[in-house]
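Researcher: Next sequence.
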Amino acid sequence: MTTGRPFDAVIFDMDGVLVDSEPLHFESTARVLADLGVRFTAEENDRFVGWTDAAMFDALVGRHRLRVPARDLVARKIAFMLELVHERLPTMAGVPDVPRRLAATGYRLAVASSAAPALIRAVVDALELSALFVALVSSEEVPRGKPAPDVFLEAARRLAVPAARCLVVEDSRNGLLAAKAAGMACVAIACATTRHHDFSEADWRLGSLTELLAVLLTRRGGP
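Model: Next structure:
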């Protein structure tokens, strides 16, 4: 694909970028662990932002010496999350308008998230954006989760766009590191949960998704 602009595709992280769901993830994980008598703190949660549920619960089972298999805890958390998505799904500023405008101007769009595939689909459907995204990719579908680049490289493969022509939108340091490891430019837009993360390697740091339009619809050069 050849255009007069530096990127052909935009790959969005989901949690904290399209929807303000990081608090919902924290609430769901805390509920799972509370049923087992374990208190899950915001400080502990911060370590796992950007991790897959499987990797997080593997670590938590070991740390708290739980006798429940991690896969069972993952299933419980996803069930809680799906309930919350249907009850309340706060969107980030610029959603759904920004993805719609980018798709209308010819950008190929994908979601690449650490969330479970069923949860990604539920969120995108709830946002009524399913028709715009060429690919929905979960870190559960690739060998390694963020900060490894696998999920972004798989998204580029499904988009049929070279990594260097993809721009990633992320809200966490793990996501930023994954994008850079994939050889992709990255826009960092911190959410309330990740304001303290180090985004020094980002190509752009923006205050909201709305500002992405100025980057992509007016630029003709690289980052």
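Model: The first strand starts at residue 9 and ends at 12. The radius of gyration is 17 Å.
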